[in-house]
Amino acid sequence: MSKIIGVLTVILSVGVGYVLSHGKLMALFQPFEVLIIGGAAFGAFVLANPMHVVKETGRHSKYVFTGSGYNAELFMNLLHLMHDLFKTARKPGGKKALEEHIEDPEKSALFAKFPTIQSKHHLVHFICDYVRLSLADNLEPHDFDALMDEGVKTFAEEAEHPGHALHEVAEALPGFGIIAAVLGIVITMGSLDGPAQEIGNHIAAALVGTFMGVLFGYGFVGPISKAIGYSVSYEIKALECIKVCLSSYRNGMPPVLAVDAGRGTLFHDIKPTFFEMEKVVNEG
After folding, report:
1. 172 neighbors 41 (Cβ within 8 angstroms)
2. For labeling, which of 87, 146, 152, 231 is most exposed (least CB within 10 Å)?
3. Helices (DSSP H) in 113-271: which residue ranges?
């Protein structure tokens, strides 16, 4: 909701300010300028990025307005799931039971208790991959931690591509606005023998191109790319939380303290208190 308010604020501030300055809104209606700017920007975006980044950018742009689902409830469920996995491992025959859960998480009754987690496939894969590694007897703790660090680092690098790609588009949009304006001036130069009003209309259309490039770049696309960066940081934080939970448990901490170590890595707006977490995991 706050993002929609932000978009409306930008539009209304610019539009109302322009009208109150005795501007005519229809003078800003230049669909061919939008075609030049938007089409060129999108083409350059596709040219610069592999298709999976293009698709991920679209997905994350949608999350800016709808939410990615990485909220306080999901992180509480994540801590609960990690606690249940550790409790399972401590039971007699726990290693075999744990292997059954991580070999087929889609059919696992343990994972099925947390549909918000189960729907995040990269989270499930990360948990399963590194729980499987943690069961290896000949893997030293520092080696295990290093492998998890690399896993988080690789995911973070890939997850940050959409925000960076869209930021590049935002930086380029004023330039594409100038291209549209130059083309408008070219058209104007071909109409110099026409009436003054016609020449004025052509110049106005050319200036609107510059205006639109700057507005789209700094008013919409730039802020959306920044918002994607914040959204992605919560996805990365989920993996860091899993990493700390697994590392702490493998180093001998009891389940509740291992997940509390993971809880300590969370941002304050998604971080439950220890007692809130303890109550939930004990009830589960």
Report:
1. yes
2. 146
3. 115-118, 121-134, 141-159, 161-189, 196-215, 222-250, 255-263
Instruction: State the angle between helix axes of 94-103 and 121-134 in degrees (0 to 180), rounded to the nearest 10.
Output: 150
Both tokens of 41, joined, read 């920007």
In degrees and rounded to multiples of 5, residue 140 shows phi and psi of -70, 150
Question: What confidence tens digit (pLDDT) does each residue in 72-88 have?
Answer: 999 999 999 999 999 99
Selection from 232, 230, 54 nearest residue 157 by Cα: 232
Q: Dihedrals φ, ψ of 106, to 5°?
A: -70, -25
pLDDT digits (tens, 9 = 90+) for 32-64: 999 999 999 999 999 999 999 999 999 999 999
Verdict on whether the full-model pTM lies above 0.85 = yes
Can you list the pairs that 261-267 forms with residues at least 24 positions away whose Cβ atoms lie under 8 Å? 262/79, 262/82, 263/79, 265/237, 265/240, 265/241, 266/75, 266/237, 266/241, 267/234, 267/237
**Residue 143 token pair:** 């080696």
**Phi, psi dihedral angles at 271 (to 5 degrees):** -100, 115
Would you state the structure tokens that stand for residue 49, as one six-digit string?
């990025």
